[in-house]
Amino acid sequence: VAGRVLMAPVLPLLSDAADQLAATVRRIAGTGARAVEPVVLRLPPGTRGWYLEWLGRAHPQLVARYEELYDRSGLPSADYEQRITGQIAQLCRVYGMECGPVVAQRREPRVAQLALV
């Protein structure tokens, strides 16, 4: 059964290099997946403090860049997110896969809605 793979989270400056993204998408394609849905790391309040504390211990040189990259709500800059998801979309096309979130299709109900009176 061909499936959809959630590629998440893409970690800025840690797992977002072009060769890393290419290797990941290539491996996903090798499984027979039909689609990839990339998600860049989100850092909402609560998670942000914990993650930046860990980052400060593991990769102290990256903390200032993360603080520039993320807004107060915990979202990465739109430019960064578009660049990364664009690279992944291009790789998906190379391997003949769809890329992005599932687009909901509106379906008509099988039976009419009953009245409440």
TrEMBL record:
<keyword id="KW-0411">Iron-sulfur</keyword>
<keyword id="KW-0408">Iron</keyword>
<protein>
    <submittedName>
        <fullName>Radical SAM protein</fullName>
    </submittedName>
</protein>
<keyword id="KW-0479">Metal-binding</keyword>
<dbReference type="GO" id="GO:0051536">
    <property type="term" value="F:iron-sulfur cluster binding"/>
</dbReference>
<dbReference type="InterPro" id="IPR040086">
    <property type="entry name" value="MJ0683-like"/>
</dbReference>
<dbReference type="GO" id="GO:0046872">
    <property type="term" value="F:metal ion binding"/>
</dbReference>
